[in-house]
Amino acid sequence: MSDLAINLLASAVAGLAVWLSQRIFNYRKQARVRAFFGLAPGSSALLVVSKQAGAESPTAIEKADVSAMVELAVLLKSCDVTPRFFMHHERLSGMGEEVEFCIGGPMSNLRTAAHLKWHLPGVWQGTFEQDPEGLTLYVGDKPYARVRSEVDYALVARVYVDDGSRPIFVVLGQTALANEGAARYLVKERHALVRKYGSAGNFCFVLGIYGRQVYGSHFVRLVDDVTEAAFTARTAKPGPTGQAVTG
């Protein structure tokens, strides 16, 4: 065999080795992402969206919430998972059989309200009547008050109800734009989140969506990890100015 043939063969072997290594590396990365979201190839996952605030029709959806669903649906398809779309008021029996992404706050998404009540006892949001300016999110005793045109907040949580169940992801923004920003963050930062939280256990963090008039939902930063407070029951809910309200 000539030197040229040997060199060509060596190059081909080296190229194949690099290609296989890259394929294995990408496969493992994707497997870790699937594990983080609790996804199984060939399965399906639920996308449950809230109605448009103030709309008379129960099927009206904010444009930004549609965008949030698209972000998550693309992620699911990349993991060979079929997204199934539902409005918040549609009857969904059971939980834990499929991965669930629940988008929107408790006032516009009945499913979110139930998840907060039963699985995230440390999280509460003020109503329009109690807090017309901010729709303040409370996690434990800490408030996250929206500042119009400057910062909207969103909470993202992964909840395992029972051992062996599929997780529920709650994406709770103070506005539809905040929902969109939080969904995009969850997708964009998935590899960093895999490294931080792994594939098991609950977590909860708060994001800030800044400069919406200039950046829309694209300028998103992690504000706090609130896992312990979010999953710890409180004896009282804070009022619109932070005072305790029992009941």
Helix and strand element order: HEHEEHEEEEEHHEHEHEE
Number of strands: 12
Distance between the termini: 86 Å
Main β-sheet, spatial strand arrangement: 2-1-3-8-7-9-10
Structural features, described:
Helix 2 runs parallel beside helix 4. This protein has helices at 3-37, 63-78, 110-119, 176-188, 190-197, 212-215, 227-230; strands spanning 44-49, 82-87, 99-103, 123-125, 137-139, 142-144, 151-159, 168-173, 203-210, 220-225, 237-238, 244-245. It starts with a helix and ends with a strand. A hairpin with a 5-residue loop joins strand 11 and strand 12. The protein is globular. The protein is of the alpha/beta class and 247 residues long. It is built from seven helices and twelve strands. The longest helix has 35 residues, at 3-37. The chain has one domain (38-245). The chain has a seven-stranded mixed beta sheet with strand order 2-1-3-8-7-9-10, with helices on both faces.
Briefly summarize what is shown.
By secondary structure, the protein is of the alpha/beta class.
List the helices and strands and how they pair.
Blueprint (H helix, E strand, L loop, with lengths): L2 H35 L6 E6 L13 H16 L3 E6 L11 E5 L6 H10 L3 E3 L11 E3 L2 E3 L6 E9 L8 E6 L2 H13 L1 H8 L5 E8 L1 H4 L4 E6 L1 H4 L6 E2 L5 E2 L2
Parallel strand pairs: 1-2, 1-3, 3-8
Antiparallel strand pairs: 4-5, 5-6, 7-8, 7-9, 9-10, 11-12
Q: Main attributes?
A:
Secreted protein; transmembrane; seven-stranded mixed beta sheet; 7 helices; transmembrane helix; alpha/beta; membrane; globular; disordered C terminus
